Amino acid sequence: MMKSQKNNHTWIYLLATLIIVATSCKSLQKAEVGAMVGGTVGAIGGSLIDTGDNDYGTLLGGTLGTALGGYIGSKMDQQVKQIEEELPSVAVEKVEEKIYVVFNESNGVYFDSNKYDLNISSKEALQKFSNILIEYPETKILIAGHTDNVGNDEANLTLSKKRAEAVRDFLIIQGADKDRFTIKYFGEYEPKFTNDTPEGREGNRRVEVTITPNAVVKN
């Protein structure tokens, strides 16, 4: 009797998970949805001969984790693809579940010397970026400001903060939820390139964006 109740609960949980995930992933490829279905059906079949409490919990946790992990990974892949298409000059990279985007003077987000106001070209690039962020609301966004080493280091720290805030504020004005954003600023203290050349300093004057799945999606 106890085993029958467990199996009934397993059916309910796993099928509910499959329905929620599959219907949420409107843009998934058929093969991806098929993999979810196949994995869930296989897990259900295995649950019919499961007899141990630990195995039961492992089954549910593993199946839920696999389905949700596939969903998150697919959504993040889609965002990377759209960023690459909409902003081809921007440096973008996905590492595990995180997306790293670097905006600098060579790819459309440019600040005048010792200024933090966004100019027209910067707004055009960030407008495209904001549209993508709005389309995928299930993420958190960290914006980090950096400068080269020209000028006072304390002033550069303040400047990097104001530039990161300017990018964040513009994205919020375009419609992105303000609660998704976190700001960090490093001034000249985390250079990616040498500050001994004009090209290196240009690369160090940058705003980096890190996109991660939010807690609701991950849990």
From TrEMBL:
<dbReference type="InterPro" id="IPR039567">
    <property type="entry name" value="Gly-zipper"/>
</dbReference>
<dbReference type="Pfam" id="PF13488">
    <property type="entry name" value="Gly-zipper_Omp"/>
</dbReference>
<dbReference type="InterPro" id="IPR036737">
    <property type="entry name" value="OmpA-like_sf"/>
</dbReference>
<feature type="domain" description="OmpA-like">
    <location>
        <begin position="98"/>
        <end position="215"/>
    </location>
</feature>
<keyword id="KW-0998">Cell outer membrane</keyword>
<keyword id="KW-0472">Membrane</keyword>
<dbReference type="Pfam" id="PF00691">
    <property type="entry name" value="OmpA"/>
</dbReference>
<dbReference type="InterPro" id="IPR006664">
    <property type="entry name" value="OMP_bac"/>
</dbReference>
<dbReference type="InterPro" id="IPR006665">
    <property type="entry name" value="OmpA-like"/>
</dbReference>
<protein>
    <submittedName>
        <fullName>OmpA family protein</fullName>
    </submittedName>
</protein>
<dbReference type="InterPro" id="IPR050330">
    <property type="entry name" value="Bact_OuterMem_StrucFunc"/>
</dbReference>
